[in-house]
Amino acid sequence: MSHYDTNLDKNEANYVPLSPLTFLERTKDIYPNYEALVYESRSYTWEEVYKRCVKFASALDKLGVKTGDTVSIMAFNTPEIFEAHYSIPMVGAVINAINTRLDPNTISYILQHSDAKVLIVDRQFHDVIEKALKNVKNKITIIDIDDQDIDTSSFKRIGELEYESFLNTGNENYEWKKPKDEWEAISLGYTSGTTGNPKGVVYHHRGSYLMATGSVTAWNMPNKLNFLCVVPMFHCNGWCYPWTLAMLHARVICLRNIDVKKMFELIDKYEVTHFGGAPIVLNMIVNAPKEDQKALKRKVNVLTAGAPPPSIIFEKMENLGFEVMHVYGLTETYGHMLQCAWNDDWNSLEKDKKNEIKARQGVRYPNTEGAIVMDPETMKPVPKDGKTMGEIMIRGNIVMKGYYKDKEATDKSMAGGWFHSGDLAVTHPDGYIKIQDRSKDIIISGGENISSIEIENAIAKHPSVSLAAVVAKPDEKWGETPCAFVELIKDKPATEKEIIDFCRETLAGFKLPKSVIFCDLPKTSTGKIQKFELRKKVKELS
Questions:
Q1: Domain end among 412, 438, 464
Q2: 469, 484 in Cβ contact below 8 A?
Q3: What whole-number distance in Å separates Cα of residue 254 and Cα of residue 34?
Q4: Which of 137, 213, 291, 309 has its CA 20 to 30 A from that of 474?
């Protein structure tokens, strides 16, 4: 044993479990009067947010909520869900933020599977929640969010308690609980569940702390920024930004619903400097009517994550004054853990080449110990040739604890000491990763692997195209061929032949879509195109 391991033990003075809850405590002490949360007619300082969170935690304690209990919340991006990211863990409980667009059956499953003791819910969801609760066996206390800034006359009361009244039963001097072990759970979030029931992803305090701090470095975020909450806070806990923003004593502007005109108004009014959003949000921004857009007074930094956006989106956003960085991650990795970190050497490149680089997923975040494209069979890294496909594998403190009550799925997802993402990608000579497809989305035509994303990028450059998604269509001769689903920009018509001929300019013949279907694309609440729905349509048409 080394002298460095002798009489140099952990103690309360030199080791404290990491928790993002401490960010709020620090900011309250140092910047108590800085504006923290802004939503319609409401505004709270950081001291007020802290006191509200402590009082709500105290009220939960009085209700009998204990360490390790699950408290669910189904809400829009309003102050209540931001506060829940602190108040619920402050009593030692685990926050379970539920996707606001789920059906009653899936919500029932989540409430039952998560062992929820309390459900905090916006009254607008009264209809779906009433249906969901009919199939839930465990007794759940319901706390209504009564949003005074919207017309609630058509919304029923769901619970016996109301958020503000319940909060005021708490004590602002409550001695809230910090985790005894940073491995303790802080959050439970459910995957999209496109096949079967969704899986419950468990985050710990340590990972949440590290993701929050890593984002600051990766995005060069300054103190006291103005952040517009666009990413739903139920999605990977808003990419962990509720915790990041307290650390930076930022001003957080809440947005109840995605409305591009409203976004431009808030950006203008509050001098917004940063926001995150799925590619679908960027698409809505660039294709918004001119009368809904406002000229930006300053550069606005944007993170986008999800399905890789077409490179043309970056050009259109830049023309409006937005600076976009592409990131990549999963629910299982606390949100984004790859970033397209920009290299100044690329500034002199042609515009198209720069946009192509911006569409890559990039390199690992500062808080990610490993992100490699590997052959899933051999678990060896693929060559850095930009051509050889493998699966993105991830290792680090921002990989989930595991799937709630599902050891088999947990073990399978982390086989070989790496988290298996299911995303197929290549590694370029400079080490930057670029997703080619989900393993289930790759099209195998005549023995050739075709990336649906490559075809989607080609189609998206057509001036009439708003969105495009490509899936495999069964084919008697080739096994599979690409089938494109296209959503057009209003008043900009196009034909199937025009789209295919346009792709012919940049794609090899075997990669061309053999059929093009024009329609509104089905999307999830976070803007991801639901390809499983498109596959169903293809089968019906075959």
A1: 438
A2: yes
A3: 16
A4: 309
H/E run at residue 311: helix 311-320
DSSP-assigned beta bridge partners for residue 371: 394
Helix/strand/coil for 443:
strand
Pairing between β-strand 94-97 and β-strand 116-122 as defined by DSSP bridges: unpaired
Do residues 274 and 355 share a domain? yes
Bridge partner list, 228: 253, 275
Secondary structure (DSSP) of 59-110 = HHHHHT--TT-EEEEE--SSHHHHHHHHHHHHTT-EEEEPPTT--HHHHHHH
| 296 found inside a domain | yes
Looking at 417, 438, 459, the residue that finishes a domain is 438
Give the relative orientation of helices 79-90 and 46-63 as an angle to the nearest 10 degrees: 60
Residues 6+ apart with CB under 8 A from 288: 260, 261, 264
pLDDT at 194: 47
Q: What is the overall mean pLDDT for the chain? A: 92
Residues 398 and 43: their CA atoms lie apart, in Å, by 32
Question: Does one domain contain both 120 and 88?
Answer: yes
> Which tokens hold the place of 164?
């503000």
Cα distances (angstroms) measured from residue 84 to each of 78, 95, 208: 10, 7, 15
Q: What is the CATH number of the domain that holds 188?
A: 3.40.50.12780
SS3 of residue 111 by DSSP: helix
Q: What is the pLDDT of residues 47-94, one digit of tens each?
A: 999 999 999 999 999 999 999 999 999 999 999 999 999 999 999 999
Question: Is the same domain home to 163 and 72?
Answer: yes
Same domain, yes or no: 268 and 335: yes
Using an 8 Å Cβ cutoff, are 166 and 59 in contact?
yes
Q: Which residues pair with 472 in a beta bridge?
A: 482
Nearest-angstrom CA–CA distance, 89 and 54: 10
CB 231 within 8 A of CB 526: yes
Asked if 320 and 375 sit in the same domain, the reply is yes
CA dist 522 → 64, 280, 328, 536 (Å): 42, 12, 22, 12
Whose structure tokens read 């989106």?
313
Number of domains the chain is built from: 3
Q: Which residue has the tokens 């496909």?
A: 389
User: Does residue 372 sit in the same domain as residue 290?
Assistant: yes
Average pLDDT over residues 292-305: 94
Regarding beta strands 161-162 and 141-145, do their DSSP bridges make them parallel or antiparallel, or are they unpaired? parallel
User: Is residue 288 domain-shared with residue 382, that is, in the same domain?
Assistant: yes
Which range among 48-52, 212-216, 475-479 shows the weakest confidence by mean pLDDT? 475-479
CA 467 to chain CA mean position, Å:
20
Q: Quick one: tokens of 341?
A: 């970190």
